[in-house]
Amino acid sequence: MSTKHMVSTPTQYPYSPRAKPRTCGKHVTYYEDTVDEFFNLMTSETYVDLTQLRRLSRYGIPGEMRSDAWKFLLGAEKADRTDDMERNQAKESEFLNAIQTTFDERSKVRTEINKLQRHYAKPLPMASYENVIGAYLHNHPEAEFSTNWVHLATPFLLTMSNRVDVYHCFKNLLEKLDNEMLEVSLNDRVISFQSLFRRTMPDLYEYLEEEQVCFYEWVPSWIGFLLSKELGLDSLLLLWDFYFSDVNFMETHRFFCLAILKQYKEYLEDAEHSQIRRFLGRLPPMDIFMIRQLAIDLRYKDREDHPSEYDADVAPVI
Fold first, then answer.
1. Its domain of life (predicted)?
2. pLDDT at residue 251 in the model
3. Sheet strands (E) in 1-99
């Protein structure tokens, strides 16, 4: 059996609890106290405090710890680690038994990877994409394949060395998105976002309509697949740190999308049709912390202006 598929033992982190500051991505530096807290949480042999992990992850996760943290935040690993060995064996079997050497959507997966490759200097792991997506389709025969799955899988494949972990994180995220869409359909979410966009930035909304930018060309991908296709990897990883720390991140997500439009409003209002479409299809590198704060401000303001559209018992958390 290939070792690349084997379920890993608890990570041995490449630093001690008094490590020097580390930079993650282009904007984030983690200092000793933060690294210590993550270190102490993630090296627990019996129980991982998910409440504490979510609290810490709202401010980003150190890169060398992101893989393990995401597994717990997405439920691919359980907080109680006493039965880890038995669960890991079951997870490994579920993945390896579902890998398909051929499946109907394989050519579509490869075509999308080839499109994505131009954004990366190193070759993307084609076979790993096929194994993960093929296994998901095998275990979820009712699922409707989307080429956006390639983009959803990419952050996991490029941050996790173990393909069993990649599969289970990908599976859990996709199942969560599917469950969200069962409660409120993607089409209804698109309509809701358009309404939110129109009342928040009417000038920009009208300008996009004047430029004949079709909302259904970009909004479903933005809303339905967590900006996985549009954002570069550094920005996306940090954004997903925030999302996975929030059990209700789909409500949070639409305000992040709105905040991006707000941040780039002047550029978009000066751009022409082709420039707008190019921007909406591939976003520039951005300060996710600044976008996060703008999303918080937009959400609170909209809640104050339109209280009837919000559940009074649910406090916004971003």
1. Eukaryota
2. 87
3. 22-24, 28-30
